Amino acid sequence: MRELEDGSLQVEGPLAGPFKTTEELASTACELMTSQPGADATHGSRGKEYCALHYYSEQEQGYFLSFLSDIGGDGPDGRKYCLVPRKLQDLEHRRVVLLGPAHNHPHNPLPSERDMGALRPAGWSPLGTSRLLYNYATRVVSALRAGHWIPIGKAEGHWGAFKAFEGKDWLP
Predict the structure, then answer these.
(1) Residue-level pLDDT at 148
(2) Residue 170 lies in a domain
(3) Is residue 101 part of a domain?
(4) Which terminus of the chain has fewer Cβ atoms in its 10 Å neighbourhood, N or C?
């Protein structure tokens, strides 16, 4: 990982992949990210957040996870954060489509309202390490259940308050 002249972060890849589906990618990304020092939810305010990029290679027709970035720290509200890499260097796969960031929450395994806020850029769909997928365009939250993405709710309002669909919740 390195900082480029324009101030953006670049990570190398791949750390993991290829995967045939985003479901396989999410499951592996969760295990890899939460196994890092201080990354799982049991560390609370003393934990560490890690970011990565997930992407698709046209060449291999598969999904990949980049190496992890641990550049970040504590935000003004005391929550952990990591700076999301915006660029990828993958010498094996030159034609890739960046699908978005992946990151963990050491203070809480669920997406934050900040992650689901209306001001986030559309088109970047984070793969959460709690096996959750958030679509910024539709604001629908899906959970990985039995190997499939199942819509469980939607973010509402300016700040992204989660409203579960009937009969659904964060946990199965």
Answers:
(1) 92
(2) no
(3) yes
(4) C
Question: Using omega within 30 degrees of 0 as the cis cutoff, is the peptide bond preceding 18 cis?
Answer: yes
Contacts of 48 (CB under 8 A, 6+ apart): 36, 37, 38, 39, 70, 80, 106
Structural domain contains residue 92: yes
| pLDDT: which is higher, 127 or 133 | 133
**Strand pairing class (9-12; 2-3):** antiparallel
Domain assignment present for residue 172? The answer is no
pLDDT at residue 164, as a whole number: 92
CA atoms within 13 A on the CB side of 43: 16
Alpha carbons 135 and 56: distance in angstroms, whole number: 17
**Quick one: pLDDT at residue 115?**
67
Count of domains forming the chain: 1
pLDDT (tens digit, 9 = 90+) per residue, 17-67?
999 999 999 889 888 988 899 887 777 777 888 899 999 999 999 999 999
Q: What is the pTM of this model?
A: 0.83
Q: How many CB atoms lie within 10 A of CB 120?
A: 16
Domain enclosing residue 153, as ranges: 2-164
How far apart (Å, rounded) are the C-alpha atoms in residues 73 and 95? 32
Terminal Cα-to-Cα distance of the chain (whole angstroms): 36
Strands 148-156 and 161-164: antiparallel
Residue 123 has pLDDT above 50, yes or no: no
